[in-house]
Amino acid sequence: MAPGVVQLDNFSWNRRLARYAKAGQHEKTVEFFQEMLQKGIIPDRFGFVPLLNACASLGALEEGRQAHEQIIQSGCEADVFVGCSLVDMYAKCGSIEDAQRVFNKMPSRDAATWTAMILGHVKCGQGQKALELFRQMQQEGVQPSSFTFVGVVNACVSLVTLEEGRCAHEQIIQSGWDSNVFVGTSLLDMYAKCGSMEDAHRVFNKMSSCDAVTWTAMLSGHVTCGEGQKALELFRQRQLEVVRPDSFTFVAVLNACTSVVAIEEGRSAHEQVIQSGWDSYVKVGNCLVDMYAKCGSMEDTWRVFNNMASHDVVSWNAILGGCAMHGHGKEALKQFEMDV
């Protein structure tokens, strides 16, 4: 070893691995793991957990499997925290079969492990399996957390099953999680997507605090249910609250304006989009193009379109559709050919 070079011990290697992960440097975390292996250093349980979390964030399935091999060799697979992180990693990387295999081998499973499996099944489009796991979890006497209930409610959304959703809602109240903003938002989103805005409003009105996500879920619910005017009324009410709208809020509001052909409301929302700095966001720009076109103002449509920093397929579909609607199809095609 060269003079002045400090040789890291295993503890220092693991601490550095965890530090990269904590800082959100997921790629660096995985790279550092590879460097550790090259030097013959295997992480301990405190290093494996952040490493697996980094793989989950990156969707790095192969690196996660490589970490799993080292976990087995080091004898850490039975550790509940490592096992939970493995389940979560496989689920988030889309390999629910691997997640299930790890889950089945675990000698003990806490609420976080069950929740990881439930969320994994929801992500993979297996809502019914997620609900079955939730019932099994309760049978084994494991108390659900707020995240568990969010996963269960999302499973109901994926299945569009209102009765299962109401059953989950009752259990949420009994467990005392109905005041949690994340659970409450998931509930009202579930009711809205299942077509029961009355239930969504009941949840919304009982919530002690609402964030932009909550407001957006309500606005989107009204739009989905064909109640664009109610969405706009709710947005005006939101402006009296100390809640800063985000890009998704504006997308919902602009969709509401489009659905009821409310161009003046749309222009007012457009001003707020500019003031809030969301006018450079492509999805918001697309909604503005679509809104102006369907409200009959091609001048505003072209102005927004030309001011957009970039265009995607949705942008071109919106401008082409608007021009075709107003008899300017050739003009739009000419512009498309020039840009492409």
Automatic annotation (TrEMBL):
PROSITE patterns with a match to the protein in the record: PPR
Keywords: Repeat
Signal sequence extent: none
PPR repeats: 9-43, 79-109, 110-144, 180-210, 211-245
NCBIfam families, alphabetized: PPR (TIGR00756)
Name of the protein in its database record: Pentatricopeptide repeat-containing protein
Species this protein is from: Sphagnum jensenii
